[in-house]
Amino acid sequence: MADIWLMRHGIYEGHRPGYHAPPEAALTPEGRDQIHRSLPLPDGITAIVTSPIPRAHQTAETVAHLTGLPIVAASDLLAEWRAPHMVLGHTPSTYPLAYRTWRERRLTHPSLSCEDGESLTDLHTRARLCAAFLHRTAQEHGPLLAVSHTLLLGVLTHLTEGPTAFLTAAKAPWRFAERRPFTPGCSATTPAFRPPAP
């Protein structure tokens, strides 16, 4: 089976702890520098797939430009957890009451969504489909780099936890431009690539 590596995008405009970034948030110059410092890629990678959300897609384009590798797919399966519109651009101190109430109930009712947001069950289902997509794409194109977002990557690498993997992902976010090998059932103990400190 071909190797698959997962990578989080670089830092984006407006980032701060607990911030729900709007989809259009773009990479910053620092984010592009993080990507430069994350290279070289592991040996053998032959193709890139990415989330279509700009900060991830721009990361993939930067890697492609620097390495000459093709981007063979941009898939919504790799998109970040879809937060409800009511919290986009907010941090915990300004979360609306409806969202705070949902957060208190989400583990006991993982199929419950908050307005137009994605439920924990829906995110876990998408992550399972994403894992299958990555394996199929790697069979077709060879060793693969997949560029995505911290919550989706966290759930993807903790699929065996079910919908509660969302909490694991939220408590142990990936660093910007961090890479890890993807293997079925891999966990927080999986050795990680960490880009050099700035």
From TrEMBL:
Pfam families, sorted: His_Phos_1
Coiled coil feature spans: none
Signal peptide feature range: none
Matching SMART domains: PGAM (SM00855)
InterPro entries: His_Pase_superF_clade-1 (IPR013078), His_PPase_superfam (IPR029033), PGM_Phosphatase (IPR050275)
Domain of life (superkingdom): Bacteria
CDD domains given in the database record: HP_PGM_like (cd07067)
PANTHER family given in the database record: BROAD-SPECIFICITY PHOSPHATASE YOR283W-RELATED, HISTIDINE PHOSPHATASE FAMILY PROTEIN-RELATED
Protein name stated in the entry: Histidine phosphatase family protein
Organism per entry: Streptomyces tamarix
